[in-house]
Amino acid sequence: MATQVECSLTKDLLRSARVFAWSVREVFERQVLREVAGARLSFTQFKLLYFVAHTDSHTVGDAAAFLGVSKAAASKAVQKLVEQRFLRRVISPLNRRSSQLALTPVSRRLLEAFEAARDRLAGSVFAQVSREQLQQTAVMLDRLAAAIAARSALPDAVCLRCEVYYCQPCRFGEWGGRNCFYRGHTRGPAGRPAEPAGTSPQVGEGSVSRAFPRHVQSQREG
Questions:
Q1: Model pLDDT, residue 125
Q2: Domain boundary among 65, 97, 126
Q3: Which among 20, 171, 185, 208 could bridge 57 via Cys, Cβ 3.0 to 4.6 Å?
Q4: SS3 letters for 114-177?
């Protein structure tokens, strides 16, 4: 007969976090992607499209760093997306021997469809929770994540943790002392590199609300 495993507060919290992360991955990511793209794309391929859409510098080497794979593996992934007409290669204006990656009309429409479907699902799921509770939960999750990351035996100054949920300002980057990969590959006004994460404005209610779909906010405010 199996012995009942007592659920301490720590274990209960970690279990809930694991189940939440699994639910986000399986429903908000993979299921939504299947709805809008069928079997044409893996989620790894979708992440690559998202990276190209949200950065200004995206060579095959950048793609390899973003995905955490070799340049050869990234090149193979890029080639498949080019063949499917989700990506195209363009000559870099700064170095004609190098090519940059660019989205196509097909991939732009797919990204828009994914975000619209995800936000509709979020509106339905999160409607049962108040806007204030959502804000408090988001802040608490970032605070705990930063505290955990600070104790990592393999500290990583470059952060890719948000994956396909990039937005600014980023509490985790600020509290965890991480450098945002997206911001490092994005040009600011007048072609200047974007400011480091540590220079972000003070986090407040306005910035917290950016983490949630606008229609969820309007439902709560109404």
A1: 94
A2: 126
A3: 185
A4: HHHHHHHHHHHHHCCCCHHHHHHHHHHHHHHHHHHHCCCCCCCCEECCCCCCCCCCCHHHHHHC
